[in-house]
Amino acid sequence: xxxxxxxxxxxxxxxxxxxxxxxxxxxxxxxxxxxxxxxxxxxxxxxxxxxxxxxxxxxxxxxxxxxxxxxxxxxxxxxxxxxxxxxxxxxxxxxxxxxxxxxxxxxxxxxxxxxxxxxxxxxxxxxxxxxxxxxxxxxxxxxxxxxxxxxxxxxxxxxxxxxxxxx
Length: 167
Hints:
This protein has eight helices and no strands. It has helices at 2-21, 29-45, 51-62, 68-96, 111-118, 120-140, 142-155, 157-160. It is globular, with a radius of gyration of 19 Å.
């Protein structure tokens, strides 16, 4: 019951972020709620956060005239809360000794963490390669970047502007 309440409250927060991004468009919270639940359900069955793609598609189709970059940027608003709370949870876990220390990551039974911890030079190379590819992609797509960032700014409107007070 608490998990359902958590998802309902988070979907309402996501709805408010979208409403701030699209103040003149009317759309229903229940459609956003359904998209949120569908995404969480999919993520609980299939790995790699495929449910976020479902949430992006269902949410965008629920809001007339919306764009994918704006809706995806509204995901970021939720991530601000998640990162803030996550930092405190990690600090608590490290201080209680329930989380392994960074040198022990190589001994974990998780393939991705232990592999990158054991092959440090490869990890640095991969991070550098990803950064260079991101810069090249940014340079090649620079003609579309301005319109993209305008849509992204629209998606995080709720973080920049105080809510309008009805007269």
